[in-house]
Write a structure and sequence with these properties.
Layout: H1 12-23, H2 25-28, H3 33-40, H4 44-53, H5 59-75, H6 84-92, H7 96-110, E1 114-119, H8 122-137, E2 141-144, H9 157-160, E3 163-169, H10 175-186, E4 190-195, H11 201-205, E5 208-211, E6 218-219, E7 222-223, H12 228-249
Parallel strand pairs: 1-2, 1-3, 3-4, 4-5
Antiparallel strand pairs: 6-7
Length: 250
């Protein structure tokens, strides 16, 4: 809450003070205690009790901490105008390394009869799109929304080696996905991963990995690294497989 990492238990009156402060951060940092009391229709004593709940000896200390908190939030900015990250990635997709990784993934997928997509957070959204895109172009693909509640303990030998898991992860270290990969590999399923680095745990566990290498971006506690490379890679794989199938038919 505000500049504290833990939550604070507030009564109804204190909650109204808190709501006013959060809605008027830039204004409150320049207020006197009497001004804040008048704005929130409470006494200065109530304001002081409120400040002590936030581990401040008085309103002056609270205001200093609040000002530092407001400045920190203001400094966090996202530069949406820098397109070089995307341009560099797209240039690399024409290179030999990316094309080799792409063909490795295509080779595995062409032997698969069922494709499972898995990802967590924003990668989960891309996984859902990937399942839809693959199903539209060449084979049945399913999105595993919650890997922990979709175990594959009892696959038949006839089916297990026809399943391919496509794991999406920016940092490549999600423990739930790593456990899922281990589970499927014991069933002789193939694993393809699309990650930001080929050195990550998920990449190293995979039978084929496509790494896109772009700058990691964080906003406060959230990982907002672009999913454009993962999206582009999924479409490249699916289109390449469709092209190869069409050539075979012709």
């Amino acid at each position: 809450m505000l500049f504290l990492e833990q939550s604070v238990e507030l009564n109804d009156t204190e909650l109204e003070i808190y709501n006013f402060i959060t809605a008027n951060l830039q204004k409150v940092v320049y207020m006197r205690i009497r001004d804040l009391a008048d704005e929130t229709h409470v006494s200065t004593t109530t304001i002081l009790r409120f400040c002590r709940k936030f581990k401040c000896s008085g309103f002056s200390e609270f205001r200093v901490k609040l000002k530092l908190y407001a400045e920190k939030r203001r400094r966090i900015a996202i530069d949406m105008s820098d397109e070089t990250t995307y341009i560099d990635f797209l240039k690399r997709t024409a290179g030999e390394e990316f094309q080799e990784q792409l063909q490795d993934a295509v080779s595995i997928l062409r032997q698969s009869e069922l494709v499972l997509f898995v990802g967590i957070g924003s990668s989960g959204v891309i996984a859902e799109y990937g399942a839809l895109y693959f199903s539209s172009l060449f084979t049945l693909a399913l999105h595993i929304e919650d890997p922990l509640n979709h175990p594959f303990y009892h696959l038949s030998d006839k089916l297990s080696d026809k399943i391919c898991l496509v794991a999406l992860s920016v940092d490549g270290e999600n423990e739930d996905i790593i456990r899922y990969i281990h589970e499927l590999k014991t069933q002789k399923c193939q694993v393809i991963s699309i990650t930001n680095s080929s050195k990550s745990s998920i990449a190293r566990l995979s039978d084929a990995n496509i790494a896109y290498y772009i700058n990691k971006e964080m906003y406060q506690e959230a990982n907002i690294t672009s999913q454009l490379p993962a999206l582009y890679t999924i479409e490249c794989i699916a289109r390449e497989i469709r092209s190869q199938i069409d050539q075979t038919i012709d």
